[in-house]
Automatic annotation (TrEMBL):
InterPro entries: Helicase/UvrB_N (IPR006935), Helicase_ATP-bd (IPR014001), Helicase_C-like (IPR001650), P-loop_NTPase (IPR027417), PriA (IPR005259), PriA_3primeBD (IPR041222), PriA_3primeBD_sf (IPR042115), PriA_CRR (IPR040498). Its cofactor is Zn(2+). This is Replication restart protein PriA. Binds 2 zinc ions per subunit. NCBIfam families: priA (TIGR00595). SUPFAM superfamilies: P-loop containing nucleoside triphosphate hydrolases (SSF52540). Belongs to the helicase family. PriA subfamily. Zn(2+) 1 binds at residues 448, 451, 490, 493. GO terms for molecular function: 3'-5' DNA helicase activity; ATP binding; ATP hydrolysis activity; DNA binding; zinc ion binding. Residues 220-386 form the Helicase ATP-binding domain. It comes from Anaerosporobacter mobilis DSM 15930. The keyword RNA-binding does not apply. GO terms for cellular component: primosome complex. The keyword Metal-binding applies.
Length: 759
């Protein structure tokens, strides 16, 4: 008899441990590690699902208690054993249930009916189709014959109808898609836009610098060296071409490649560049794919139908069996950190996965994270640098405008005189302009000028944001979506002087139109890009010169190469500096550098205006000089002094509950337990003579979180700082056990986050 340890799928039970079941003889072949199985559970023998984590010949409990597995779920992806190891590593390092970690590495086949309507369309002509039918009949492929006959009858068939009414299976449809016999409409968007253009474009001739980097990487790869590289290259220096060269080399060795690109930069333009070079061997993933489509992509990857997967963070778990290289473009991006538990960072997970499979990792950025650059300097990663733009296009000329001086000049407009002058100039020359505002609807809050009352969300501890509506103006909560009408007088004192402060993108758009009435303006922010492909539409309209000025948030600084943009205006550079966040300067530097990099990509007259109240702040001055090294040196000194990552490590514990008192009490108990742990460990160390403790654990809090209430849930936070990551990891593991056993934490949710990115 074979025994399987099974982890229960969390959608059934919140049980994070394994249970042993016997595998009946007839299932022995199908039941492998990673299989999804159904089995009777509990006293009531409810049939539920779970994954096989391990198999053994001997039972670990009395066999009389061991029940049998019912069945192995068909068509489920078998989770590869290395992905199971990856999941337990994620759980161990970031804090989550094993189930949550497994969900991340393994997409679950969607069982609920697809909301999206999909249709199947025959791609073959009548003669071709009839010939195919004869061929299938000869081979007696019953299911395929049925599908083809159906399509010959009506040409287009509804996907769900085919499955539910005609008993056609998804694999049959999938096979036809792969043989180009049919096309499934809703999935075709990114399938392969150049399917019928067979010719793949030749690579460009690389510059000497690009070639030197590619050669070095390829030589090391051939020598069997596997490690992590950091490609630091200014915007427009040709990093993407270098990636493609590396990818090609790795593919030639029969290996597979994952390329991570932040979703926002994964535009049609970018995707096409890769399709043109690699054609059919690519698949693209994005968050717009349904669960089922994502599953299909994984299936194709697992079957070896593709060799390259391009996508955002989740593409990291593509089940390639011969993975040889993981590239992470825009490595510094906050979106590589998961906001849901387990709050893992794609960079760290990529490096671990690569080590399991013998792959290399390449990180690329114009503005590397402090973490990555420090490790490169410490020799942990190999550093490659590209510090010139391709085609010799000069870097734009940057002006820093002190907004305090503008006030002295009685200029109350949001445009400094310099910016106004340059906008007028570009409009006259029929060149394009991007105006960049940090953060959506920033400071769009509404308050009373008589009594100071601020309009707040009744469910969250944040102010409501003013939005221009078609007929009525609204106040919206950006945390929970709560909405109300803009009041005509103050609800607190009745004064009519209630108004919005600050500047949101909508306000900027309005002011641009007022100041430059002939200019055609497009706005891009969360509100204008909600629809499918919403941001793609705006970007391509701008690329087609349907507008002169594009106004937007950080969204506009990514991904697109607008050859005609020769002026970038950053309206208020400081907004991110005031954020209550140890990465504030780093984020400001990154945003300014990336935004500036949009100007003059193909022209030599690129100019950038940075408007700021802090013209002397190092994140502004170094960004204006495009001097990453100088920024890094200043910032790493600050982090060292303050003992912030990457010099030290921070573990954040987030405690939430509907009951404010209960969570406050739990947070106090949490702290007491951490202190206990610290003291115990210290006394153990004191008796062990050879261990010298260099750094102490520092505990900050518990305090109410920045936003102390969201959706009527109260939030507390504790920070634990220590030089040694392992110390904090052990502490986290200890606390997880403690929380499980203490009743005080009932009704409380505790989440962990290492070295937070988005606080
Ligand atoms: P990055 O990824 O560093 O921003 P890209 O790879 O997108 O830079 O290159 C910027 C521009 O330069 C692109 O339009 C690209 O096609 C072009 N380019 C890159 N390398 C070369 C080359 N060796 N010869 C000619 N053009 C190149
Ligand atoms: Zn008032
Ligand atoms: Zn709210």
């Amino acid at each position: 008899m074979i025994y399987a340890d099974i982890i229960v799928d969390i959608s059934h039970e919140n049980l994070d441990k394994t249970y042993q079941y016997a595998v009946p003889k007839h299932l022995e072949e199908k039941a492998v590690v990673g299989s999804l199985v159904r089995f009777p559970f509990g006293k009531a023998n409810r049939i539920i699902k779970g994954y096989i984590i391990s198999l053994s010949q001997t039972p670990s409990i009395d066999v009389s208690y061991i029940k049998e597995i019912d069945e192995v779920v068909d068509n489920a992806l078998v989770m590869e054993s290395h992905l199971i190891r990856l999941a337990s590593w994620i759980r161990d390092n970031y804090g989550a249930t094993l189930n949550d970690a497994l969900k991340i590495v393994l997409p679950v086949k969607q069982t609920v009916k697809m909301v999206e309507k999909r249709t199947i369309r025959l791609l073959l002509g009548l003669d071709e189709a009839n010939a195919k039918l004869i061929e299938l009949q000869r081979k007696n492929y019953k299911a395929r014959i049925r599908l083809l006959e159906l399509l010959l009858e009506r040409n287009v068939v509804d996907y769900d109808t085919a499955i539910n009414k005609y008993g056609i299976t998804r694999p049959t449809i999938q096979t036809f898609v792969e043989h180009n016999i049919i096309e499934v409409e809703a999935t075709k968007v990114y399938r392969n836009p150049i399917k019928n253009q067979q010719q793949v474009e030749q690579a460009m001739v690389l510059t000497h610098k690009q070639q030197a980097i590619a050669d070095d990487f390829c030589n090391e790869y051939d020598e069997g060296i596997r490690k992590t590289y950091l490609l630091h290259g200014i915007t427009g220096s040709g990093k993407t071409e270098v990636y493609m060269e590396m990818i090609e080399h790795v593919l030639e060795q029969g290996k597979q490649v994952i390329l991570l690109i932040p979703e926002i930069a994964l535009t049609y333009q970018t995707v096409m560049r890769f399709y043109k070079r690699f054609g059919d061997r690519i698949s693209i993933m994005n968050s717009r794919l349904s669960k089922g489509e994502r599953f299909d992509q994984y299936m194709r990857a697992k079957q070896g139908d593709i060799d390259i997967m391009i996508g955002p963070r989740s593409a990291l778990f593509t089940p390639f069996e011969k993975l040889g290289l993981i590239i992470i473009d825009e490595e510094h991006e906050g979106s590589y950190k998961s906001e849901m538990p387990p709050k893992y960072h794609a960079r760290e997970v990529a490096i671990y996965r690569a080590s399991l499979l013998g792959a290399s990792v390449v990180l690329g950025s114009a503005t590397p994270s402090l973490e990555a650059y420090k490790r490169a300097k410490d020799g942990e990663y190999k550093l490659y640098e590209l510090n010139e733009r391709i085609s010799g296009a000069k870097l734009p000329c940057v002006y820093v405008v002190d907004l305090r001086e503008e006030l002295k000049k009685k200029n109350k407009s949001i445009f400094s005189e310099k910016l106004k002058e340059l906008i007028t100039d570009r409009l006259n020359n029929k060149e394009q302009i991007m105006l960049f505002l940090n953060r959506r609807g920033f400071a769009g809050f509404v308050s009373c000028r008589s009594c100071g009352h601020v309009m707040k969300c009744p469910h969250c501890d944040v102010s409501l944001t003013y939005h221009y509506g078609r007929d009525k103006n609204k106040l919206v909560c950006h945390y929970c979506g709560y909405e109300e009408e803009m009041p005509s007088k103050c609800p607190s004192c009745g004064s009519p002087y209630i108004a919005t402060f600050g500047t949101g993108t909508q306000k900027v758009e309005e002011m641009v139109k007022k100041e430059f009435p002939t200019a055609r303006v497009l706005r891009m922010d969360m509100d204008t890009t909600t629809g499918k492909e919403g941001h793609e539409k705006i970007l391509s309209a701008f690329a087609n010169r349907e507008a002169d000025i594009l106004v937007g948030t950080q969204m506009i600084v990514k991904g697109h190469d607008f050859g005609n943009v020769s002026l970038v205006g950053i309206l208020a550079a400081d907004l991110s500096l005031y954020a209550n966040d140890y990465r504030a300067a780093e984020k400001t530097f990154q945003l300014l550098t990336q935004a500036a990099g949009r100007a003059g990509r193909s022209k030599d007259n690129g100019e950038v205006v940075i408007q700021t109240y802090n013209p002397e702040h190092y994140s502004v001055t170094t960004a204006a000089n495009n001097d990453y090294e100088a920024f890094y040196n200043r910032e790493i000194a600050f982090r060292t002094m303050m003992k912030y990552p990457p010099v030290s490590n921070i573990l954040v514990a987030f405690l939430t509950s509907k009951n404010d008192e209960a969570v406050a009490k739990a947070a106090d108990l949490f702290k007491a337990a951490v202190l206990d742990y610290k003291i115990q460990l210290k006394s153990q160390m004191d008796t062990a003579e050879d261990i010298v403790e260099t750094e102490d654990l520092e505990i900050i809090g518990p305090v109410k979180a920045n936003v102390a209430k969201v959706n009527d849930i109260y939030r507390y936070v504790l920070y634990m700082k220590h030089m040694d990551y392992i110390y904090l990891k052990n502490l986290k593991n200890f606390m997880e056990g403690f929380i499980d056993y203490s009743t005080i934490f009932k009704g409380c949710n505790v989440q962990f986050d290492f070295n937070p990115m988005n606080s």
